[in-house]
Design a protein that fits this description.
Radius of gyration: 14 Å
Helix content: 40-55%
Strand order of the largest sheet: 1-2-3
Structural class: alpha+beta
Mean pLDDT: 85
Distance between the termini: 50 Å
Strand content: 25-35%
Largest sheet: 3 strands, antiparallel
Number of strands: 3
Order of helices and strands: HEEEH
Shape: globular
Number of helices: 2
Low-confidence stretches: none
């Protein structure tokens, strides 16, 4: 089986998101890539507004890394961030 370098994967995803999400108000992005029990590569992305605590988490996405993962993650995170901003404005 061809195992990807998980640290490199994490760094690439974090850099892409930091660049693509500059218009949104957030402070921290955490990316964690890991092998699931069935040897698939999973990735968890969390975006925080101020501190890295559950109360300050704006959005979270977790899924198996496969073709189209990054695009789906970006769309999902942006949708959650917009929804959170609308709820805070009310």
């Amino acid at each position: 089986m061809n195992y990807p370098n998980l640290l490199r994967l994490e760094d690439e995803i974090k850099a892409l998101l930091a660049y693509r999400l500059t218009a949104y108000r957030y402070k921290h992005i955490t990316v964690e890539a890991y092998y699931a029990m069935n040897e698939t590569v999973m990735c968890r992305i969390e975006i925080f507004s101020t501190d890295i605590t559950i109360a300050n988490r704006i959005a979270k996405y977790e899924a198996q890394v496969k073709e189209g993962f990054y695009q789906e993650a970006e769309r999902n995170l942006i949708a959650k961030m917009k929804l959170k901003a609308i709820k805070e404005a009310i």
